[in-house]
Amino acid sequence: MDTIVKSLKNGGVGVMPTDTLYGLVGSAYSPGAVERIYELRQRDKDKPCIVLISSVADLAAFGITLPPKLELHLPEFWPGTVSIIFPVPDEKFAYLHRGGKSLAFRLPQNKDLIAILKETGPLVAPSANIQGLPPARTVEEAEKYFATKVDFYQDGGELTADPSAIVRFEGDKMIVIRDGEALRGKKPSL
Fold it and tell me: What is the pLDDT of residues 21-40, one digit of tens each?
């Protein structure tokens, strides 16, 4: 784990398991790592990536203040496989929000991933695949996409979960951007 943390803190990019799929990860604080991820994935330059955090407190670094009602209901979603979109209007994060002035954040359940996030800080973590192709379910599948173009691979076995659900809130109303198993049974409002 130490070599992965060191690589990420030094602007490295690698493939590792999340609590959903394998992610192509890099520091959310490193514009160079973020751009490298876009190039490796051949990702649409206007499409922001999900950011993984180790605690709700990490949101403050992005200028996010939680509405009190959402803060009260956040334990229904986090830790878990729901990514929540928040406004991030600060232009210093334009390399992340790609001009959309909002980002999706997720507090994962995976304890090993949380331990890494506590060391590295927030990580950009789109699925480990070329845009438009199936997400890698194993390290071997990820290696077919990225070969030696990444700095590390962390093997977590075969991952069979669905991608995270993505939601945003307009006042008390939950808008589902991408559905997911974690939303089954959730109310559409706070």
Answer: 999 999 999 999 999 999 99
